Amino acid sequence: MQLTDKASSWLSDTEIVLTHRKVNQVSLDDIYVVPDVELDSSNDLVDIKPAKYLLQNLGHHIISGEEQQGKTSLLKYLYKELLKLSFLPVYLDALNIKKRPQSKKYRGH
Q1: Domain segments of the chain: what residues?
Q2: Rounded to whole angstroms, how far apart are CA atoms 76 and 82?
Q3: Nearest alpha-carbon partner for 93 in 80, 76, 81
Q4: pLDDT by residue (tens digit) across 25-81?
Q5: How many CB atoms lie within 10 A of CB 66?
Q6: Where are the alpha helices (DSSP H) in the chain?
Q7: Is 39 in contact with 47 (CB distance < 8 Å)?
Q8: Burial class (CB in 10 A: 0-12, 13-18, 19+), 5
Q9: Contacts 24+ apart (CB under 8 A), 1-6
Q10: Which of 3, 9, 4, 7 is nearest to 28 (CA)?
Q11: What distance in Å separates the CA atoms of residue 105 and residue 108, rounded to the nearest whole number?
Q12: Which residues pair with 39 in a beta bridge?
């Protein structure tokens, strides 16, 4: 599958301004270090796994955290890795999803 230029640009965008004297633009691929993630646990023990665990245990995952902790960067990493595994990931930006007015409810046939 071939990504559009816009999608490729978004996946490599750090979303913050970074400069380096030897390159014109610093990309996410230049600086990203795959983190460990803390999984919810049914007991009091902390369950920490490498983020690659999410790729090895596909399913529904909720990624949460404070602002600027790397949630979007992790999603971009997972997106690219899933493409390599021949999956077709879908990214939905909740801020850009508009609510449908009640009067225009979808009625499937």
Answers
A1: 5-104
A2: 10
A3: 76
A4: 888 988 889 999 888 877 778 889 999 999 998 888 888 888 888 899 999 999 999
A5: 7
A6: 5-12, 28-31, 52-56, 71-84
A7: yes
A8: exposed
A9: 1/83, 1/88, 3/83
A10: 9
A11: 10
A12: 47
What is the length of the chain? 109
pLDDT, tens digit, 9 for 90 and up, residues 78-93: 999 999 999 988 887 7
Enumerate the β-bridge partners of residue 12.
none
**Does the predicted TM-score (pTM) go above 0.85?**
no
Three-state secondary structure readout of the chain: CCCCHHHHHHHHCCCCCCCECCECCCCHHHHCCCCEEEECCCCCCCEEEECHHHHHCCCCCCCCCCCCCCHHHHHHHHHHHHHHCCCCCCCCCHHHCCCCCHHHCCCCC
Task: Give the residue among 59, 37, 63, 56 at the shortest CA–CA distance from 48.
Answer: 37
